[in-house]
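Dear all,

This email documents one entry for the complex benchmark we are building for the journal club exercise. For each entry we list the sequence lines for every component of the assembly. Then comes the predicted three-dimensional structure of the complex as a C-alpha cell string, followed by one or two observations. Please use this as the template for your own entries, and keep the labels exactly as they appear.
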Amino acid sequence: MSQSVRRAVDLIRRAAEHPLSLTEAAEVLGVHKSTALRILQTLESARFVRRTGAGTYVLGSGIIELSELALGSMDLRQFAAAPLRTLQRKTGHTVHLAQLTGDEIIYIDKVDSPAFDAVKLPSRIGRAVSIYASAVGKTILAYLPTAERDRLLSHVVFERFTPTTCADRESLDAELVRIREQGWAVDNGEHDTYVMCVAAPIRDSRGRVIAAASMTAIEVIASLDQLKESLPLLLDTAIQISGELGYDTSEGD
Amino acid sequence: MSQSVRRAVDLIRRAAEHPLSLTEAAEVLGVHKSTALRILQTLESARFVRRTGAGTYVLGSGIIELSELALGSMDLRQFAAAPLRTLQRKTGHTVHLAQLTGDEIIYIDKVDSPAFDAVKLPSRIGRAVSIYASAVGKTILAYLPTAERDRLLSHVVFERFTPTTCADRESLDAELVRIREQGWAVDNGEHDTYVMCVAAPIRDSRGRVIAAASMTAIEVIASLDQLKESLPLLLDTAIQISGELGYDTSEGD
DNA sequence: ACCGCCCGTTGCATCATACGCAACGGGTTG
DNA sequence: CAACCCGTTGCGTATGATGCAACGGGCGGT
C-alpha cells in the first residue's frame, strides 16, 4: 500500500466536500505543510484539484471528466436514460437506476423529482446502496444465483437501521422469496424511516438480473400506497429497458 | 511534485479509458509489476479503481461519487437543469452549459438530443472547451473585463482548426465586439467543421457573465440557419437562468 | 497429462524519493 | 508598525517506495 497515494486520495475526497486550505490539508493528513503542498501541486497539475482565487483547493474538472467518461460508456445507463426520464415525468417520483458492479450495488443514474428540491434524498450516483436494506439491493439479490448471493452476503454485517429493516439472514431470505414471487421489491423505511421505495428488476440479454430501477418517495410527499399506484409503469419501464439490452421479453415474467 | 501520486493519477486515467491489466499498468508507467500492483491496490481500497472478475482494473465508483458530489453542489447547474431540459425538448437540439472555472471554461451540463445517438458530439462534461474556437468560450470571453480576458488569452497558442477559426488575436477581438453588440455567439464549424453552435451569456447576481448556454447541431441534422431559428428560446433560457442566479433581468440586455 | 510461459503476488534488502526543517516573502490584524 | 499566520522553496536526511527473487496458478501447446 502506498502512503503517498493514500494521502492524495484523502485530499481529493476532502476537497470534494469543502474548500481546503494548505494548512487544513497538512493538519488532516498529519504531515508538514510542505509535504501537503507537493501532493496538492501534483493533483493540481493533473486537474484532480483546482486552486481557487482564495488559495483553497476544490475538486478539479479532471475528476468530473473521468466520471463522465465512465458513465458515458455504460450501455445500460444509455439505454435506460430516456425510459427513466419518462417514468419520472409520468409518475412525479424520483427515479433511480442501480447496478451490480463487482461486489457492490451502485446507483448509476437518478432522475430527480422537482418536489424534492426542499428535501434532499441521501442517494447519490456513484454511491453504494445497502444490499439488504434497499429496494434495489433486495431486487438484485433476489434473482442472483445462490452462490453469488451467499458470497455478497458473507461480507455483510447486518444492522437494524430502523424497525422495518430485515436485520438477519432468515428474514432477508423470506423477503427475497416474496420478491421473486411478486416480481418487485419494496423499501418501507428500512434504511431511513422517511424514505419509501419500490424497485423492479432489469435483465440482460441472457436473462440475468444485473440492475434494478426504482421509484422513491418520502412520507411527507407520497405514501407507499401512492407509490404502488405507479408500480405498473415501473414494471413496464424495467421490461422496456431489459428489452433494449436484448432480453427477450415475450417469455413472460 | 510527487512521483507516486503522478503514477497513480496516470493509472486512474488509463483505467477510465479501457480495462488495464497489471502487466500493462507496469509497462505504461515504466516500473516493476510489484510497484504498479501496490499503487493499484491503494487505489482499489479507495474505490478509485475496481478490479474486474477478469483481473483487469477499471475506473471505480469512488471517482463517480466525488464527481456527482461536486456537480451536485454547483448552484448554477442546479438552477439551470430544468430550463435546459425544456430548451432541448422545445428545440430538439443538444444543449450545453459551460462555466468559467479558474482559468478554464468547462462544460458542466449537457442535455443530449436523441437525434445524436448515431453521431456522438465531442463535448463532454468536465472537459475544457477551446476559449477562442467555441461559441460558449467566445461568449464568456466577450463579456470578461479586459484584464481578465488578456490573462486568459496570454496562455493561448492560437491554432487554425478549420478554415473558419479565429486564429489570431485581432480577428478574435473583432468577433468579440460583434458578440457584445448582438448579445450571442456563433460557432460555424470553427473547431470541428461539422459542428455548429449558438451560445448566450448567463450572468450572476452582480451582472457578470460567468457561464454560457448553447445549442449545438451537426450539419447533417440541422444547418446554422435552422439553429438560429431557435435563438430567441436560447436567449430567453439564458435570461431565465440568470434570473434564478439573482440577476435583475429588468435592466435590459 | 505434462511442460513451459506468463500472469499476479509477496517478503525483503536497498536506494531514491518523500519528508520535515529552516528560512523567506507577503498579507492581515491589532 | 509589529506580530502572526499563511504559502512556498531549497536542501539534507530518513523512510517508504522500489525492484528482485521466488512463488503459485492458469493457460496453451505438444
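Observations: The longest helix of chain A spans residues 75-91. Residues 3-4, 31-35, 38-39 of chain A lie near DNA strand C (CB under 10 Å from a C1').
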